[in-house]
Specification:
Length: 322
């Protein structure tokens, strides 16, 4: 059986790459620390560190073991914290991973508000992680629930998922742009624009899916500028630097000087799934997942005959009228 104290010692030395600094961090002397690391290596039958007079560094096997040890210790801390809350009569806590769109769309805040209304004693910890990091967190049990941009594979032996958001896209243009008042929009109209791309945290996959949907609709966006999140892209549109597409759920957050147009023939949607581990779900985890599923925001497609302009603010209307 592994000794948690030895694992803590190993992680400290690995992160510091220096026995002296690790000893200071752990408030022990160097000699006992070195002995504990040697005993751990002997117990494992594995060389964790390459040692020289100048430094100590991880072996390739040591790097793999470090990642697992860090995950194990994080879960141990979470387990201890949960046990203490249960001992006080609390329902425990929730560790939730999410992507930015879970916040922007209101999916996560709405579910959290309902949970806090029903179960105010539950402690919530939120982690803004990438898609891959959330899935790994679920597998290692450091996360209870994940909000991700694509579904878990149907044959995944550990995880399950359910869609909670399917949000149509709106074209955002400056208020004085010719397309702001055009009676209709065509793929050729969009192909002729300077585009502001949104490079989301989840990276290339979502970007490629958007480009593919544009090509399927009959145009290729000329992306001349990129923002790291949609609200920043809307700010650039307001400054007259180009056009972009954002999800419908952001329409109330558009700044002054931006007009939002529906594009019914554009198939791309912003999607979100809730994912969880199949095994040994605590009641509070199951309840929160069900809250997310009950509040699903699967927005129906807009009829092709309906193309409207939505101005961000009353001020935008006045600017347009002039």
């Amino acid at each position: 059986m592994l000794d948690i104290r030895q694992l803590n010692y190993f992680v400290a030395v690995a992160e510091e790459e220096h026995v002296g600094r690790a000893a200071e961090r752990l408030h022990i002397s160097q000699s006992p620390l070195s002995r504990q690391i040697a005993q751990l290596e002997e117990k494992l039958g594995l060389t964790l560190f390459e040692r020289s007079q100048q430094r100590i560094k991880l072996t390739p096997d040591g790097r793999i073991f470090l990642a697992e040890a860090q995950a194990f210790l994080a879960h141990a801390k979470r387990l201890e914290s949960m046990a203490r809350r249960l001992g006080r009569g609390d329902e425990g806590g929730l560790c939730i991973g999410y992507l930015e769109n879970a916040m922007h769309s209101g999916v996560l805040p709405n579910a959290l508000r309902e949970l806090q209304r029903e179960r105010p004693a539950v402690h919530i910890a939120l982690y803004s992680y990438s898609n891959a990091a959330q899935l790994e967190g679920l597998r290692q049990r450091s996360l209870d629930v994940a909000l991700i941009c694509e579904p878990v594979a149907v044959d995944d032996p550990e995880l399950e998922s359910s869609q909670v958001l399917s949000d149509p896209m709106l074209l955002a243009v400056p208020v004085d742009h010719p397309l702001a008042g055009a009676p209709s929009l065509t793929p050729q109209d969009l192909a002729a624009q300077k585009w502001i791309g949104v490079m989301h945290k989840e990276g290339a996959l979502r970007h490629d899916n958007f480009i593919s949907a544009c090509a399927k609709a009959g145009f290729v966006p000329d992306i001349t500028m990129e923002a790291t999140e949609p609200l920043a892209a809307l700010g650039l549109v307001a400054a007259g630097l180009g056009v972009t597409m954002v999800q419908t759920s952001l329409r109330e957050q558009a700044p002054e000087g931006v007009v939002l147009r529906e594009v019914p023939w554009m198939s791309y949607r912003t999607a979100l799934w809730v994912a969880w581990h199949k095994v040994a779900l605590r009641p509070v985890v199951t309840h929160f997942r069900e809250l997310l599923q009950r509040s699903r925001m699967i927005v129906p497609s807009t009829p092709a005959s309906k193309i409207t302009s939505m101005r961000a603010t009353d001020k935008s209307r006045r600017v347009r009228a002039r």
